[in-house]
Design a protein that fits this description.
Blueprint lengths: L7 H7 L9 H12 L6 H9 L3 H10 L11 E6 L2 H5 L2 H12 L5 E2 L5 E6 L11 E3 L2 E3 L4 H12 L1
Parallel strand pairs: 1-3
Antiparallel strand pairs: 1-4, 2-3, 4-5
The protein binds FE2/S2 (inorganic) cluster.
Length: 155
């Protein structure tokens, strides 16, 4: 794929990594940091620049949960779904959040207000169940505290 004006912003993000070994992951992180997500249209461009197949890039992109393939909502609520949090009631909190926000996990509400995602351990197991709202970690989450968080973002 040729370098084009259409791809110029993407190429500007990719270029600093092209000489590095194992550049795919750093590039995907950089693209997400720059654009908020990794658009499907970026996959063939990245594959071309790294001389990889589209399947190689797609495989890595879809393997890691942290890569976003669509724009996120204005708020991102991540609920820990790993074992310690599950043992402390995380599944009930996930169901509560999903119902209150009318949004299934792994998705963004239609009005773009919030994205609801699982996360697999926030390193706060001793304060399980845990969550992260817009980058801020919340421990010892209860149904009441979750309602308060949701009131703050979806009011
Ligand atoms: S399992 Fe949830 S914070 Fe570690």
């Amino acid at each position: 794929m040729a370098v084009s004006a259409e791809n110029a912003p993407l190429d500007a993000v990719i270029a600093p990594f092209l000489k590095e070994p194992g550049a795919l992951l750093p590039i995907l992180h950089a693209v997400q940091a720059a654009f908020g997500y990794v658009d499907d249209a970026a996959v063939p461009v990245i594959a071309d620049r790294l001389n990889l197949s589209r399947a190689d890039v797609h495989g890595v992109l879809t393997f890691y949960h942290d890569f976003r393939r669509k724009p996120a909502g204005r708020h991102v609520l991540k609920l820990c779904s790993a074992e310690a949090c599950q043992s402390m009631g995380a599944n009930d909190l996930i169901a509560q959040a999903s119902a209150r926000l009318a949004t299934p996990m792994h998705s963004t509400r239609a009005d773009g207000v919030v994205t609801l995602e699982p996360v697999y351990c926030l390193g706060l197991c001793s304060a399980a169940p845990s969550a992260m709202l817009d980058g801020q970690i919340v421990g010892r989450l209860t149904a009441a505290r979750l309602d308060t968080l949701i009131d703050g973002i979806a009011a």
